[in-house]
């Protein structure tokens, strides 16, 4: 009887673990898109569209992070791990790893959020004259693709209740409190977590589409017979 | 999760220092204004055209025009903007300068502007490196590779996150349109060139220590601020003033005096080690060198402070004072300095030592300070602290300065030193010699070793401390018949220890006493003395004296001493001025029944004025050096197991043997 119970528990644990991993992936995706968007704040690509996209991305992220299922799932398992001895050291290590990764992701996201807050404060778009202040960086809004990517993110679990997403400052404070809470309640020694892949692993084995280096992209057309030594800096390693 | 080991900022995260950043931002915003800013041009690439590029010459021209400065300055200003990261070069992206030609630049997006508020994170750098790794299949620059390895080691716990994030960012970037993608990549690359420069480059973001307040923040004036201003102005009204003519005169005098001694303003003989790499100058001016240089000796004449602060000068002065028999002043002064600068743990003992040695009535090296100062000092010693002896020290310092210093400068000791002082020849090195010197540079002695040597020397000095004449004459009269009793007609100066140079000066002093200057252990003497204790027996004494005459040569100095000691009490009683008022003198040592008391007499200021105040049974304890005193006390303390009288305000009962 108890063995059956235990196997059920294990299965449940595995499923939750997979959910967490998928949620982690989703969070990464959302945060990276968020970074792309924030990078355009204050530049010539800035505009109400960008800001709206920013808000939506934030909402998605908020839903992933602060979903109750996420927290309870993690916390419960890690806190109660002292009971379930048979799950073993391996499982605990995996959990700790996931925990640390999640906290790192949160931290990274928080950094971007703060920057976004600053930039929005520095470049308000309330009036038309403010548009003159936007820095002409060469970007002319190309964030549509990014927005689409964000939209394609699937949440690992369905949230029944749709909380209203908080505005930027509240979001920041909320995340901060959540992080500190998490760090205090669960004593995980993050230095004991190890990476699963060795260094330089990502350099090999990217079998997807051909990678264009920056030099290729920045190749300048050489007008025949012109004086211009149209050098784009190919000499130096980009 | 990051381990936040920020430099010791005491919890203050935001410590802006670069006030220039805000100002640079303003300038950049002006520059990029489409109407009045720098002229924008498109950058033509193979795949596309990217707008909003500016040329170097346009930047320089605009800056020169806007701020009304010349081209050179405009160029440096522009380079500063590039170095800070507000503008980045598109071609030659590693050199952060503005080239006043057609090379292209672009404005950096505000996301990548430098701020001190949010310091640049290593996590981001790791993600960036991982992205580059993916892109360039592992071909990174050398310093980037090193950084990558380092970050992989230190951020191992979140490395999975970093790689995952790098991949995601890479994919997200691909979603953008080509020109924007190029721009973003350029921006990111430029950002990291500014904030993680390759080794050997000078980074504009290197701003040193962080400051407490934001120079750009607006500080509202609070009532507290005004109160402070009021207090400050009130205090400055009350400050004592010096006429500027006086203070300027003092400055001029100082400059004129020290001008020749300043290695910046005048030549350093033989040569300045910093310039020629030849350390003769330092070797000649070591603190404990035998023969000082002429410049150094000249410096001693400038002021008493100079003399004292130079260890060699102090030695010379000490020698002089020894000859004058007022060495206790300098010793006291040094003891006070020791107390002031010493460790707190030893302070109490030091204060006690000093008191017992110098200040107590009948102390072995009593210094002559006026009553009021003595009172203050003694009162302060109830609760000794570092500066308790300050008043006395100042008094003694002024005494030495006004009295002894002048005499020192005219004394034969000083003249001798000055005559012997060496004046080194100036070095004339050729270039090749200079190179050789540079090659032969060696580090100097470690300060630990120097300190050990100093301490050894101090200990040595303390062990062979000079004795002051006042102590010598404590129990004696300069009466010839002393010699009769001791049976010694001439002072055995030959046998005397070498540390008694002034034997020659004191012919009248009875030899046993002078012999007694030999620093032997008091306990031994005591032991020996107790053997021969047969007071009140003149015959014994006479015979002892006779013994002395017979066996002077054979006996060791110590025994001589002992024998010679016995009659001295009789001398004392024979002394015309002796008032054998027993028990009225204060004691500084506890008395044991088996030991004779050491009655400290009234202090004698003058050699020839002897007021001896000894009870008849007192035994002359020959002059002991300070540490014998201490040894005495230590031993007696052990024997008695009682606490000594330290506090002078407690009534000193006539000897009853208790401490």
UniProtKB/TrEMBL annotation, chain B:
Keyword hit for Membrane: yes
Q: Which domain of life is it from?
A: Eukaryota
Record GO cellular component, one term: neuron projection
For this chain, one GO molecular function annotation is:
GTPase activator activity
Question: What keyword terms does UniProt attach to this protein?
Answer: Membrane, Sensory transduction, Signal transduction inhibitor, Vision
Every DEP domain range: 34-109
What InterPro entries does this protein's entry cite? DEP_dom (IPR000591), G-protein_gamma-like_dom (IPR015898), GGL_sf (IPR036284), RGS (IPR016137), RGS6/7/9/11 (IPR047016), RGS6/7/9/11_DHEX_sf (IPR047017), RGS9_RGS (IPR047077), RGS_DHEX (IPR040759)
State one Pfam family annotation: G-gamma
Coiled-coil stretches = none
Domain (RGS): give its ranges.
303-418
- Please verify whether the record's keywords include Ribosomal protein: no
Biological process terms from the Gene Ontology for this record are: G protein-coupled receptor signaling pathway; intracellular signal transduction; negative regulation of signal transduction; regulation of G protein-coupled receptor signaling pathway; visual perception
Organism equals Oreochromis niloticus (Nile tilapia)
Localization of this protein? Membrane
How does this chain sit within the bilayer?
Answer: Peripheral membrane protein
Q: Which SMART domains match?
A: DEP, G_gamma, GGL, RGS
This chain belongs to which protein, by name?
Regulator of G-protein signaling 9
**Region (Disordered) residue spans:** 425-446, 514-548, 582-601
Primary localization: membrane
């Amino acid at each position: 009887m108890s063995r059956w119970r235990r196997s059920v528990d294990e299965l449940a644990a595995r499923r939750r673990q997979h959910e967490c991993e998928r949620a982690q992936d989703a969070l990464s995706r959302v945060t990276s898109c968020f970074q792309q968007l924030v990078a355009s704040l204050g530049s010539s690509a800035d505009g109400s569209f960008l800001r709206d996209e920013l808000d939506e991305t934030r909402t998605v992220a908020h839903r992933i992070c602060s979903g109750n299922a996420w927290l309870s799932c993690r916390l419960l398992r890690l806190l109660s791990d002292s009971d379930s001895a048979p799950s073993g050291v391996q499982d605990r290590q995996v959990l700790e790893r996931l925990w640390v990764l999640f906290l790192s992701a949160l931290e990274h996201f928080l950094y971007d959020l703060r920057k976004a807050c600053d930039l929005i404060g520095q470049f308000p778009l309330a009036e038309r004259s403010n548009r003159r202040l936007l820095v002409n960086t060469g970007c002319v809004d190309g964030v549509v693709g990014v927005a689409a990517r964000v939209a394609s993110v699937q949440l690992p679990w369905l949230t029944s209740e749709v909380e209203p997403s908080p505005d930027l400052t509240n979001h920041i404070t909320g995340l901060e409190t959540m992080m500190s809470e998490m760090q205090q309640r669960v004593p995980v020694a993050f230095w004991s977590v190890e990476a699963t892949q060795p260094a330089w692993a990502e350099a090999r084995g990217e079998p997807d589409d051909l990678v264009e280096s920056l030099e290729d992209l920045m190749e300048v057309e050489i007008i025949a017979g012109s004086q211009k030594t149209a050098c784009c800096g190919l000499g130096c390693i980009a | 999760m990051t381990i936040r080991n920020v430099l010791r900022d005491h919890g203050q995260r935001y410590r802006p220092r670069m006030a220039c950043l805000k100002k640079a931002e303003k300038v950049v915003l002006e520059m990029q204004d489409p109407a009045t800013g720098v002229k924008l041009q498109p950058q033509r690439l193979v795949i596309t055209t990217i707008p909003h590029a500016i040329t170097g010459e346009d930047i320089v021209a605009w800056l020169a025009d806007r701020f009304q400065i010349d081209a050179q300055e405009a160029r440096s200003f522009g380079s500063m903007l590039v170095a800070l990261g507000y503008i980045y070069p598109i071609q030659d992206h590693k050199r952060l300068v503005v080239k006043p030609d057609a090379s292209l630049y672009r404005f950096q997006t505000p996301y990548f502007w430098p701020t001190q508020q949010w310091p640049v994170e290593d996590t981001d750098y790791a993600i960036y490196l991982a992205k580059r790794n993916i892109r360039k299949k592992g071909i990174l620059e050398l310093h980037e590779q090193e950084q990558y390895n380092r970050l992989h080691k230190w951020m191992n716990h979140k490395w999975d996150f970093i790689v995952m994030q790098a991949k995601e960012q890479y994919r997200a970037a691909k979603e953008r349109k080509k020109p924007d993608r190029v721009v973003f990549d350029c921006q990111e690359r430029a950002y990291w060139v500014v904030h993680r420069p390759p080794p050997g480059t000078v980074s504009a973001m290197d701003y040193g220590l962080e400051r407490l307040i934001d120079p750009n923040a607006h500080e509202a004036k609070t009532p507290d601020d005004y109160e402070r201003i009021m207090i400050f102005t009130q205090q400055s009204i009350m400050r004592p003033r010096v006429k500027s003519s006086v203070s300027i005169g003092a400055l001029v005098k100082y400059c004129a005096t020290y001008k020749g001694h300043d290695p910046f303003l005048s030549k350093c003989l033989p040569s300045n080690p910093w310039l020629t790499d030849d350390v003769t100058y330092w070797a000649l001016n070591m603190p404990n060198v035998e023969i000082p240089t002429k410049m150094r000796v000249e410096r001693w004449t400038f002021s008493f402070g100079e003399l004292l602060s130079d260890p060699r000068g102090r030695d010379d002065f000490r020698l002089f004072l020894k000859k004058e028999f007022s060495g206790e002043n300098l010793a006291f002064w040094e003891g006070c300095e020791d107390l002031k600068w010493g460790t707190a743990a030893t302070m109490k003992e030091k204060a006690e030592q000093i008191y017992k040695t110098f200040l107590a009535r009948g102390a072995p090296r009593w210094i002559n300070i006026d009553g009021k100062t003595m009172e203050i000092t003694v009162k302060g010693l109830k609760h000794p602290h570092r500066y308790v002896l300050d008043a006395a020290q100042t008094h003694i310092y002024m005494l030495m300065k006004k009295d002894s210093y002048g005499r020192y400068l005219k004394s034969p000791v000083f003249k001798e030193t000055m005559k012997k002082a060496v004046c080194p020849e100036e070095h004339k090195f050729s270039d090749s010699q200079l190179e050789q010197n540079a090659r032969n540079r060696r580090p100097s002695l470690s300060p630990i070793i120097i300190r050990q040597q100093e301490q050894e020397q101090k200990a040595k000095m303390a062990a062979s401390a000079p004795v002051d004449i006042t102590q010598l004459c404590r129990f004696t009269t300069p009466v010839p018949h002393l010699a009769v009793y001791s049976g010694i007609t001439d002072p055995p100066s030959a046998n005397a220890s070498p540390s008694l140079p002034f034997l020659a000066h004191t012919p009248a002093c009875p030899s046993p006493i002078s012999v007694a200057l030999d620093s032997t252990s008091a306990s031994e003497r005591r032991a020996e003395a107790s053997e021969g204790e047969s007071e009140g027996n003149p015959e014994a004494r006479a015979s002892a004296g006779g013994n002395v005459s017979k066996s002077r040569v054979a006996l060791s100095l110590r025994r001589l001493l002992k024998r010679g000691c016995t009659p001295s009490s009789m001398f004392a009683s024979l002394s015309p001025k002796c008032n054998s008022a027993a028990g009225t003198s204060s004691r500084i040592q506890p008395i044991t029944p088996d030991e004779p008391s050491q009655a400290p007499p009234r202090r004698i200021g003058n050699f020839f004025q002897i007021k001896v105040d000894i009870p008849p049974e007192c035994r002359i304890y020959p002059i002991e050096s300070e540490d014998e005193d201490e040894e005495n006390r230590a031993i007696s303390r052990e024997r008695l197991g009682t606490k000594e009288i330290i506090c002078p305000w407690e009534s000193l009962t006539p000897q009853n043997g208790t401490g």
